[in-house]
Amino acid sequence: MIEPVVNAMSIYQVKKQSQLSLIDYFRQEHGSYTTEAFLSAQCNFVQSCTGYCLVCYLLQVKDRHNGNILLDAECHIIHIDFGFILSSSPRNLGFETSADHRVCGCNGWPRWEKVVQIVEIMQQGSQLPCFHGSSTICDLKERFHMSITEEQLQLLVEQMVDGSMRSITTKLYDGFQYLTNGIM
Asked: 20 to 30 A Cα–Cα from 166, which one of 35, 79, 123, 159?
């Protein structure tokens, strides 16, 4: 399925064209840190990032890089290219871990039963590689961590974020994207 996304640029394009860090780009486009426009843009960015982080973790969306993440005029992030989800990954590289986000918190977990049911329905008769694999549904259920307490889940989310930030494989994948595609 293809749908055009208007009034948005990839984060790669934003960084390349502006030659600024993302925070400096926000200040350039929306004013100083204390302006209503900047605070609104910052809020839009954080809220949309949190939602996408949760979805990317649960559905194991892969091939995330600055060329696949758009930024609209109000600073919402919009992910594109969902070719690798669940049990499929580019070139069978299943190590991307940078999709976790501390701000997601535990209150962001959606109703896991409905998500699992939707994936099970989509899996029936599908030829898509992401649905092939005997453990796809089991792994999906495990990512919801429904058997642990709220406090344990919060600690787990924090550990996942810390691990993601230190992940050598994420740094290597970012370097690979830069070397092969010029994506910063």
From this structure: 79
Upper half-sphere CA count for residue 152 (Cβ side, 13 Å): 6
> What sign does the CA torsion over 4, 59, 96, 165 have?
positive
Interhelix angle for 112-123 vs 136-143, to 10°?
160
Q: Hey, what domains does the chain have and what are their CATH numbers?
A: 8-181 (1.10.1070.11)
* Average pLDDT per consecutive 10 residues, the chain (184 residues; last block may be shorter): 79 86 87 90 86 77 77 86 67 50 48 76 77 78 79 80 74 72 62
Cβ(41)–Cβ(30) under 8 Å? yes
Burial class (CB within 10 angstroms; exposed 0-12, middle 13-18, buried 19+) of 52 = buried
Query: Which two tokens mark 117?
Result: 């049911």
CB 63 within 8 A of CB 73: no
Tokens 């992940």: give the residue: 167
The radius of gyration computed from the CA coordinates of the chain, to the nearest angstrom, equals 18
